[in-house]
Amino acid sequence: MTMTARSWWREGVIYQVYPRSFADANGDGIGDLEGLRGKLPYLADLGVDAIWISPTYPSPMADFGYDVSDYRGVDPLFGDIARMDAVIADAHALGLKIILDFVPNHSSDEHPWFRESRRSRDSVFRDWYIWRDPAPGGGPPNNWLSNFGGSAWTLDATTGQYYLHLFLDKQPDLNWRHPALREAMFESMRFWLRRGVDGFRVDVLYHVMKDAQFRDNPLNPDYREGIDSEANRFLPTHIADLPETIEVVAAMRAVVDEFPDRVLIGELYLPLERIVAYYGDRLQGANLPFNFLLIGAPWNARDIASLVERYEAALPPGGWPNWVLGNHDKPRIASRVGDAQARIAAMLLLTLRGTPTLYYGDEIGMRDVAIPRAEVRDPFELNEPDKGLGRDPQRTPMRWTGAPGAGFTDGVPWLRLGDDVAARNVATESADPASIWSLYRSLLWMRRASRALSAGNVRILGASDAVLAYERVEGDERLVVVLNFTDAPAELPIDEPVGPCVLSTRGDIRRGALQASEGRIYLG
């Protein structure tokens, strides 16, 4: 498929910043907007095009910012509105775009809307949230479960009804069937769009609509007691991916389209055929429904080749693909596949067709950091301990130097840094032409200079038990990518490309058999 229109979000690369962990300017151990502002030149030099900032809204921080108490402000922990304006302005001056997180499924229970909603059943804000009477005989209205464990319903003693929360009880779900709520949320989006943000990544987009009849969810026959999250005990039939959700997405997109050249990205943990549905009728849904399929895919050449072909075939006409290797909710790629294969992952992500999203620290090969039980901060892990569900390990602070505090803070970091800071940090790796940082930077700048990589078609050329090969073509420019997914040398699954090798994950450019865990890009 050939791209029909050029746009920054189609051809660019998105870089996710988890602000608590990126750069701390005031020494309190928590990253902030001024710290991020100081690192904007680094991101421009690295070669990314847009920065997605996880929530910085005012919040009690029960879920570290995903419990929003004001959609039109900045929490003092991170700075203020003026500081955010400065980040936006400085980013734009460097040619970088700014994408904010938007959290429409739920607010904080300390949001003024919810405080008023729970005051009485007659409140004008009552139906901005989802309230239900107890079940006959008492207890929660149905069997819906929270994604963080336990019932998704909490009884409010004042009014005698239960409110819905698909996450923490301090995160009551908003009622997107209520017109006034919708318009208030849309106006919050406009507030930021008017300030110059370039779009939104929409949190848990697939959850915003719930079954109007509040029917019980069916049992999950594959649930594993003591291993899986308790939420998986039931299939999310009536709380996720309802048909009405697509209409809400289209309405959000219409708001974004009131402003020129903005983007709407949706978080969707769904099967492939449902992910692509969120492009919407006539592509009026999300510009980029997040494709997380690489995160859970078996890490081998044949499965990755099959995934690429199935995804490309499933895209609607004109739909632009995207790829993600990790984020603040999932284990880091280097921990999943190892250091050598993390380089293969980098070359894969940045040479497939579509918009890539990087997670901060992946460019230096950061790994998950084991967090002792006494230091756990993540409510998911606190609610369901010892299942490996906690998200603290992938949220640890960015390592800028090998000094104490890793150049992240002059204070005590909010999460421990890990034991390999001296080797894995920007200062050390940026001085080493053989480092993974240098590989990322080379790939990013090559992608920016190449129309074949940023916009061209993709075609799988071959996949063996070890090696995946594909081509990227735009006009008379052709590049061939070959990736060895094993820790042993491997023959190319195709005839040797005609042109020279222009980049290797191992640094030394050669012909013939691939080295263990080596990827190469050839001129076609």
Report on the structure:
The structure is a single chain. With 524 residues, the chain is of the alpha/beta class. 26% of the residues lie in helices and 14% in strands. It is built from 15 helices and 16 strands. It has helices at 8-11, 33-46, 81-93, 112-117, 179-194, 243-256, 272-275, 293-296, 301-314, 333-337, 339-351, 379-383, 426-430, 436-449, 451-455; strands at residues 14-17, 50-53, 97-102, 131-132, 153-156, 161-164, 199-202, 263-266, 288-289, 322-324, 355-359, 457-463, 467-474, 477-484, 501-504, 519-523. The strands form 3 sheets. It has an 8-stranded parallel beta sheet. It has a 5-stranded antiparallel beta sheet with strand order 12-13-14-16-15. Helix 6 (243-256) links the parallel strand 7 and strand 8. The longest helix has 16 residues, at 179-194. The radius of gyration is 23 Å and the shape is globular. The mean pLDDT is 96.
Number-wise, the strands total 16
Q: Which structural class matches the secondary elements?
A: alpha/beta
Side-by-side strand order of the widest sheet: 9-8-7-3-2-1-11-10
Query: What is the percent of helical residues?
Result: 25-40%
Mean pLDDT: 96
For the largest beta-sheet, the strand count, sense and barrel status come to:
8 strands, parallel
Whole-Å distance between the termini? 19 Å
User: Beta fraction of the residues?
Assistant: 5-15%
**Tally of helical runs:** 15
Assembly status: single chain
The radius of gyration is: 23 Å
Q: What overall geometry do the principal axes of the alpha carbons give?
A: globular
Unreliable segments of 5+ consecutive residues? none
